[in-house]
Design brief:
The structure is a single chain. With 205 residues, the protein is mostly helical. It has one domain: Cyclin-like (Cyclin A, domain 1, Orthogonal Bundle). 59% of the residues lie in helices and 0% in strands. The protein has nine helices and no strands. The chain is globular, with a radius of gyration of 16 Å.
Amino acid sequence: MAEFESVEATPRVINVMSSLLQRVAESNDLNFRFDSRKMTISAFHSLTRPTISVRRYLERIFRYANCSPSCFVVAYVYLDRFARRQPLLPINSFNVHRLLITSVLVSAKFMDDMYYNNAHYAKVGGISTVEMNLLEVDFLFGLGFQLNVTPDTFHTYCCYLHTEMLTASSLHVASSSAPLTIGRAPVLHCCSNEDESTHHQQLAV
């Protein structure tokens, strides 16, 4: 879809993604607040909630990772797959930033012919290179190494993001009041089901 391949329109896509992920994180914060037994602490979890917002963090990744616009759609696919494969690791305010930087890293390596190394992504994400390497491995295992995204799946996610973009634009606000009816697990995920069988202190995540 042209809206997602156009460099000019990409910031709107980033805003829609960040809005959706923020809603997911806040919803899961509430769902798991009173029953921590339902949630597993992983390498993606920060000890404290990062001070930089999801939107600003994703905008920073977009600015400095220099990967293709398609990488962000594929990263979104990966996040949805990860969330549904790892129901005990729901996306929340403590892990969404690390999941974001890792998903974009993996997506760029899979999608683009040229990409920055892990040390660069670690600097962009406000973490150490050693930690970036560890998160990449954990993310790949969490995905079950299912990195292939078919054209149909890519189109499905593009359509979903495009619909969210139009909804937010028509309302002049992010569609935060609309419930996320996605996935089959009781935990909110990122998107509809797949169609297939800037300071360092602020960045510290």
